[in-house]
Structures are given as structure tokens and as C-alpha cells.
Write a structure and sequence with these properties.
By secondary structure, this protein is mainly α. The chain has helices spanning 3-35, 44-54, 56-82, 85-110, 115-137. The chain has one domain. The longest helix is centred in the N-terminal third of the chain and has 33 residues, at 3-35.
Length: 142
């Protein structure tokens, strides 16, 4: 199998996994938003300690989010190795939106659960989902 085709096959598998992970992150995020109450009077330095000792849902959500960030980087590398311009663009956007969601999620936990952080996290999720879903549902043939 030609290297480019091999990278393309791996890329499509990773991108499909990213879409599934995003959907799982969405479900965990909604559960956390509805059922986990993070005390607003915690100092920002103590917030993560509280989360890791009191909220398995948020911990799993955060760990999966960081894994997704690494997958987004791998996706971008594979897109470049596959030489597909549309995949490169989708992967750049997916990485940027995933980074936005990760940063906003961390800010949400650390700085008093602001509505803006929650909104930016949601926009990051939606942007990443659309970026990767375009590739999964309309793959360019190698």
C-alpha cells in the first residue's frame, strides 16, 4: 500500500474517533453542567484539587478533552502526510476549536464558572465537531 493511502486510512480512522470522542465529551459536559455543583468560593488554585477529589465526571471529561487535543495534533500531522488540502484545513480548524474548548473548559473550572467560558467551550465543541464531521461524512478519496 502506498504511504499516502496508508496515512489517509489512518487519518480517516482517527478523525472518526475524534467525532465519537466529541460526542462523548458533549454528554459528559451536559451531565456535569446539570448535576455537578462546583463551589464558587474556591480559590482558583484550589478548584482543580476540589474537582479531582469530588467529581469523577468532570475528571473524565477533562482527561478525554486532553486526549482529544493530542488526537487533534496527530490528525493534523496525518493530514499533512496524506497531502489532502481539505483534510489539512479541517484538521487545522479542528485543532483550533478543540484548543478553544480545552482552554475555555479550564478557565470555566478555574475562574468561577463564567457564562462566557461555558459558551466558548460549547462553540469550540461545535466547531471541532463540524470540522471533523465534514471529513468523516465526505472523505476525499486518496
Amino acid at each position: 500500500m502506498e504511504k499516502s493511502k496508508k496515512f489517509s486510512k489512518i487519518y480517516l480512522g482517527i478523525t472518526q474517533g475524534a467525532v465519537h470522542t466529541l460526542l462523548l465529551l458533549f454528554i459528559l459536559g451536559i451531565i456535569a453542567n446539570l448535576y455537578i455543583e462546583i463551589p464558587s468560593d474556591l480559590a482558583s488554585s484550589a478548584t482543580w484539587a476540589w474537582v479531582f477529589s469530588n467529581s469523577a465526571i468532570v475528571v473524565i471529561h477533562a482527561i478525554l478533552g486532553m486526549i482529544l487535543l493530542l488526537v487533534s495534533i496527530a490528525s493534523l500531522v496525518l493530514a499533512f502526510l496524506s497531502h489532502h488540502v481539505q483534510w489539512i484545513i479541517a484538521s487545522i480548524l479542528g485543532l483550533l476549536f478543540t484548543g478553544l474548548a480545552a482552554y475555555s473548559g479550564s478557565d470555566f473550572i478555574s475562574n468561577g464558572q463564567t457564562n462566557l467560558s461555558s459558551l466558548l467551550m460549547a462553540f469550540g465543541f461545535l466547531g471541532a465537531l463540524v470540522s471533523y464531521a465534514v471529513v468523516v461524512f465526505h472523505p476525499q478519496k486518496a
